[in-house]
Specification:
Blueprint (H helix, E strand, L loop, with lengths): L1 H18 L23 H10 L8 H18 L3 H20 L13 H20 L28
Helix pairs in contact: 3-4, 3-5, 4-5
Length: 162
């Protein structure tokens, strides 16, 4: 019985392929999305949150913390001082520790963040900003010179000639 069902399914797929029903599918001939990224154990969860447009306020604490850890590097680059970096990391680590003491489902492993690594990242970003500021501004584009008018030599008209 299962062989007949499989052969029926195969026959319908073959007929659809031959009639061209699979030709204009979106993404045809393109690589699978995310094939070049490193493997992420929680890809399905991130994809679900993105696809469904779930707001961060609606997320369970474990997923919210994981997202905060993921976005921390970008946030740290914009902070004004090393002290603010350390305070931000300490606040996040406090939240992570509270979650680790009283976890709630879904049980997503969230590790504390190394403050020294984040400070090093901040310093590198700061150095990049200083380097960009030190570079001389590109010379202004030359303004187009006004065209010279070349006067045509014309007949000089005497008064009364017309």
């Amino acid at each position: 019985m299962s062989d007949r069902i499989e052969s029926l399914i195969d026959a319908r797929i073959r007929a659809a392929r031959e009639s061209g029903e699979f030709d204009d599918l979106p993404g045809a001939g393109k690589p699978l999305p995310g094939h070049a990224q490193p493997h992420d154990e929680q890809w399905w969860l991130k994809e679900f949150v993105r696809r469904e447009g779930i707001d961060a306020a609606m997320l369970p604490p474990s997923i919210h913390l994981a997202r905060q850890v993921e976005r921390l590097a970008d946030e740290v680059r914009r902070l004004p001082s090393e002290q603010r970096v350390r305070e931000t990391v300490a606040d996040l680590n406090r939240e992570i520790l509270d979650y680790q003491v009283r976890p709630s489902p879904p049980f997503v492993p969230v590790r504390r963040v190394d403050a020294d690594a984040m400070v090093a990242l901040w310093r590198a970003a700061l150095e990049e900003r200083f380097a960009a500021a030190r570079q001389p501004a590109p010379p202004p584009a030359p303004s187009p010179r006004p065209r010279r008018r070349w006067f045509r030599r014309g007949r000089s008209e005497a008064p009364g000639d017309a």
